[in-house]
Batch of 3 targets.
Target 1
Amino acid sequence: MSATGVPRGAARLATRLAAPAPGWTAQADVVVVGSGIAGLTAALRLRTRVPRVLLVTKDVLASGSTVWAQGGIAAALDPEDSPEAHLTDTLVAGAGLCDPRAVEVLVTEGPARVRELVALGANFDTDDDGSISLTREGGHGADRIAHAGGDATGAEISRALVAQLEAVRADPGIEVIEHALVLDLLTAAPDAEGRPGPVCGVTLHVIGEGSRDGVGAALGRAVVLATGGIGQVFQSSTNPAQATGDGLAAALRAGAAVADVEFVQFHPTVLWLGAGAKGQLPLVSEAVRGEGAILLDTDGVRFMPDVHPLAELAPRDVVAHAIVRQMARTGEDHVLLDARHLGPDFLRERFPTIHERLLAEGIDLTTGLVPVAPAQHYHSGGVVTDLRGRADVDGLYAAGEVACTGVHGANRLASNSLLEGLVFAHRAAQDITERVADGDLPQREPVERPGEPGLVAGAARSRIQRIAQNGPGVIRTGAGLEAALDALAAVPTRAHEQPGVVAAPQTAEWETTNLHAVATVLSAAALERAESRGGHYRQDFPERDPHWRRRVVVRLRPDGAVKVEAGALLPEPGEPAVPAPV
């Protein structure tokens, strides 16, 4: 790291994408980007509270990452449980980097938000007395995980929220644009130091569907990013194909701070389909281990009881690292999940989706061992927000996986992600409502950001994914991260102007440019954090270091240079809270 905070070898990233000028313009009070639990919640809350809402989604309404959530949603709904106990478990999993204020908001407001989902039509699994049935997952000290359809919780929540939105599609106060990739955040006039001004809309490309197509501009008083994760930056992930880090990259280009980006959660038990498997891979939910399934190595040895007191129910980072070490000992590239002792009838009823998915691959969960290995699953970092969902660029909000609220710290506690999207989208919508009513969010005029636009060839995607897998993957080293930064810096970022390179402003190139930006800031932050903690494991610094009980914050300078800074020490649990660095 240089004295300026710019990593040596780091690529200089573009502050805007190369794209055609917008051919049409839409106007709204609020533009919501994304249709997972956070985006749908924000849009539905805002619909009757501001004059006009525009919801933009990259595919169809029901296509976000929420649909794929098998495990459940965590909340202290049992009278014998408490928000305080949920807070304690979350802080432990977060390995000292949670913002206690954000966690307190999550656990105290969470139960009410889940009950509101029920009122909106979400059908959770229930006990004989009609109460929501609650189970336990890794890292939780109580039964507080609500499920729907056994292992189809995200799909049911998405169904209920989409149904609510579909019911009001004819309302002139809301418009939905599907099949639309948001390219850049529009910003107003820069400040005296050249930093972008307030966010005042987005540019987007609609992929030939509906009444609009091509590149357009959607202006708004505020923009809510709810674009999900970064999974496709890696060679294998449980994330859908749309998870190309678009929101995080757009926020960076608009001058927003991102933090905790080095904390990538690799799900311990993703179905192993061979060394060449790529793209979205099916996960075998943590809930299977929650019900008693155990992990064996390829010699039949159960290894987790010697690693952690909670054995297979240890936090995900502990389990993932243990699996990687066990694979190294045996020389294999997978381990085995054994649920046979739970009984075929129970497994078919409790995990119908997983059971059917495994059968499609020729594996019977009820009678056979399931080959699994860690793969990218969840990103704990993102756009830095306060407790109201505000980013540090006025007019910009973020909620869900794209945001860094401080809830997850170094490692997300199982089933807290859906709850975070729900709670903080609700808060962001409330804050926007109040600010619009007070006249605190005027519509500003966008200006073109200075600097040359960037574009990475779509053909470079597999190269970028390989760099990310080998650099900021499950096991990291300083040398590997430096090599990753050098390799990423060597990727042409103005490919559309480079002779002989086949690249044009279009979806594949825009997504690949976003993946390149995400891989760069991820590698830079992981290099800066010289310790191991939560979802960040450095083989050359294998221990946790109290000095690093702080956020690593990344932003782009006006010239596109990547700037990495370490924030102030975060409080230990029980200490007075201090403002999170932004």
Target 2
Amino acid sequence: MGSSREIAIGPVAVVSLLLSAMIQNIIDPSVDPTNYRRLVFTVTFFAGTFQAMFGLFRLGFLVDFLSHAAIVGFMGGAAIVIGLQQLKGLLGINHFTTRTDVVSVLDAVVKSLHHPWNPLNFVLGCSFLIFILITRFIGRRKRKLFWLPAMAPLFSVILSTLIVYLTKADKHGIKIVKHFKGGLNPSSVHQLQFGSPHVGEAAKIGLICAIIALTEAIAVGRSFVSLKGYQLDGNKEMVAMGFMNIVGSLTSCYAATGSFSRTAVNYTAGCETVVSNIVMAITVLVSLLFFTRLLYYTPIAILASIILSALPGLIDLNEAYNIWKVDKLDFLVCIGAFFGVLFCSVKIGLLVAVTISFVKIILNSVRPSTEEQGRLPATYIFRDITQFPMATKITGMLILRVDSGTLCFANANFIKERILRRVTDENGENTKDRVGVLVLDMSNVMSIDTSGILALEELQKKLTSQGIELAVANPRWSVINKFKSAKFIDKVGAGQVFLTVDDAVDAFLHLRMTGLASC
């Protein structure tokens, strides 16, 4: 039901830890495991319901708050953290941290190395990691062998499992998957607790998990969408995630979302459509029914090496450098997401990136520039004199364009003061040809509020007191309607509003020539 072609769905660390930490505050799983499990299914149902509602109410625009720079930083930070977490499997470490920040992971690795560990896990994992990377290199060089890197992970699992089984390597320190219960999940419809005294807490936890899970899934989806160059429909993703978790809560599953590590493996394996999720689900189903015994001897180091092989391509240093060259504030967003994910968590990294992006938007809207316009030779076109040095000023006139899409309470006073300052500076420099007319080009202004109109009225009064006339040129239709409603045109005069800058200039030049002729 979703629009992402690469995303792989399943349980993820962030949502798992969030569920565990919050539900344990209500019910202790060691004291009452049955009600604990029922509450988990209830929370999952609420999470799915909220997610589906977000999509049905068309809140997919929220996905646009994750900019390209934020995605680049998120991918880099998540790739490093996930890679470090796989050291547990690659080194065969028994005790490891459940936290996802790089400091905790590295601290756990260093502490674990002080305890006995078997280097055979590292040798086996690195051997197959090198094999997978070599096949990927060959597949890129020779397009006809595209199937080689796609088959390498599966071949590695089969071959490593056979090696461990035949050599009894598990008795010599190799960590293996061992036995896990097979079969299908039983129905959990009767376990949902809508009449429980904890239903309010379950709904609250479900809402938090829904938002975090959606944020991570959409971030993961957009990360790989940007590599493939197609559009992600946030509304479809929300509806798909919602119905998935609703059905999951009815079939003994807890909240799932898009997994970065599984999606990375999915992407590098060459998947092109959502059929990969169907194939994955069927494979898991068949494996649970018939092949759980065959997976008993699968070494954990191989699973870690497969995930590690997918991560190097996700750290895009060249793109980060390009962002730095183009926009320093965008690079700050990228770095904020990177270090937030690296040293805190996925949700903190995304929160930092979105916060910096909002600050950037606010700064740009609160502090817009005003460009002085001049006429291009032998034309009726007016352009910024800084960008077009050949553009000439009109004697006795100052033509300014407001470089903002909105004139509102946030920037109205700033724009007014900047315009007055430009008029003062212009008259200070030209003692002979003083500015008699200010033409305000409002072609960029899409909307205006009462604060903006009030600022224009105050500007007109101050200019009049200095003997300067104000002319408004090229206002949008929505702006004109606001002017009429506020009676601004009556106050400044209908003859002071013009269709184009050229019309305003011609009108005042004609008025000046008429005045000279009468003299």
Target 3
Amino acid sequence: MISKILLDNVATYKEVNFNPSKVNYIYGGNGTGKTTISKVIANENIYPYCEIEKDDTEIDICVYNRDFLKKNFSQSNSVKGIFTLGKNSKDAQEFIEMKKDELEKLKEKNNKFENSKEILEEEITKENQDFENKMWEIKKEYESEFREAFEGYMSSKKKFSEKCLGEFNNSSELLRFQDLVERKNLVFKKDVIKYEQISIINFEKLRELEQSEILSTPIIGKENSQFGMLIKKLKNSDWVNKGREYLKNSESQCPFCQQPINRDIIRKIEEFFDDSYKEQFGLINDFKEEYCTLIKTLINNLKELRTQDIEIIDLSILDEKIKIIEEKNKVNLMKINEKIDTPSNIIKLEKITDVIQEINTIITDFQKMIEKNNNLIENIKSEKNKLINQIWRFIVERNKNDIKRYKSSISGYKKGVKNINNKIKNNLEDSKAIDKEIKLKEAEITNTEHTKNEINKILKIFGFVGFKIENAEKEGKYKIIRNDGSPVEETLSEGEYNFITFLYFYQMIKGSTDPTGITRDKVIVIDDPVSSLDSNILFIVSSLVKNIVNDCNNGKNGIKQVLLFTHNVYFYKEVTFRGSNKELKKHEKFWIIKKIDELSKIEKHDENPIQTTYEMLWEEIRDKERINKVSVFNTLRRILEYYFNIIGGLDYEKCIHSFEGEDKLVCKALISWINDGSHFVNDDTMIYLDPESIEKYLKVFKMIFDNMGHISHYYMMMKIDY
């Protein structure tokens, strides 16, 4: 069956959806768009904006319209024969029916399998959506740090989740988050720079100075003299040595008691501070000079290192160490000066080498970072790929349980779908085999003779005795001939031609223009089959159409759906007439096609909306919002003509004189057509009215019924409570 038809950008249709039922009665006036629908159904491929959805793609679509006549039937000697099953083929027909039952059962099984598969696929879709959402949350959590690794997967949940699945067996090194961030900041840095390596500080010389014996050795004079023994006893060699400086400036007077000092004492003092003392004292001064030079160089080197622009390391941590060295150096200089002032004292310097050892430890770490940076630059491409793999390994590990659960669930569902697909495939293969058996059996017993006899029989019954169908010289073809055997050669009247073509179509529904395919399922589309037919022929055509509908309702001749289009009210009433059985089947639907402002619309009705032509005229003016501006004038005067001329009686002069002013002119315009002799409801004269004129005509139209004493009829037909 056809479940949906989208009509768009074709004729007067714009995005119109039509959802036909099993049996469809579709009424519409000429030019509203009935034939357009039949053409779209017959060949949707040439209408790119239209779509047709079918429940069964294998079903045949049989369309009767003008295109069908041009393609399949002409008043010539080459009409395709219609193959049907012969009457004497009971066994074959029973065989075919049995096989068709088997096909139907296989189809029902496959429908159940398709339903089961649909449920599984819905579960797969739900699992996919849940998994994609979970992975997307992870992506949002880490995208600010790992944007470079996620490149190409940032805009699609599906792609990102598929990437996570694809990395499930990633065997890259598993790093901590912080390590990955640090490597990312280095590897993906836009301006990557290669740095000169820095060196550790050699502090062996400083260590020697810190451990120098000169600092731990008291420096005193010659102790084995009498004067020396006294100084040693008093332990005042440093005091005496200072006194010597004052003695040089006091002209041999004691700088303390102001008494003269004899030269012997001066000689003994000088003997105490001999050359050995002077040499050791000189070593202290040399020590200070060397120490100060070494420390100054060390501090300058550290400060120079501190000023280097190496972004990958934090040189600011050296500031504290340099400050400590400077502070310790101040203390040590004080101690050294103290040693110089009091050479007999023992001093111990603050160890700066310990701080330098700490600095070297820091520098060693810096060296590793610089080496790592420089290696990365030399191998930047491979390092980037390596890091990206490590990042995905981290992401997978972060979600390993969710991925395992998802893979397990999806695997189960897909296995179920695969099993169902195998069953469907097997059933389809069985169906093809059975269909082949049916076609072989059809080919054995089908012929075109039965169709020819049936068409000629109906022609004769209804008085069409001047022509008939016979087998053409070419096998599988018909020709239309006169009784004397001569070809008709385009001499059939329009009514005769339309009647015989519909009989041809009617027989084709029961058979096929090919020797096989006779019993295939069909959708029947019939577009206005009674044009130019008189009432007797219209009656037989409507009876044949009702047979088609009954076959559809009862599941006969493979007819699964019927769509009947017509503009003829009498024909419409005939095919929808139900006799004593007035109960509608649920699958029988009624449709009205209207064209308003050059746009066609399709309205659905659960009950038959077409009563009479007169009722339809009133239907056109009930809804003011949807009145056809082109035909409303004709509609109004046709109602007046039909009711007052045939039913109510109308004194034209009296009616006109009951109005005044502009209303009188409008009334005269409406009823003047009646005097002009137009007595047929099907008159097609059109006058276009603007919205303001429509209101005037509708008002006067109502006043005519009121003034002539028939207002109750107006209210009844307009369906207004009165």
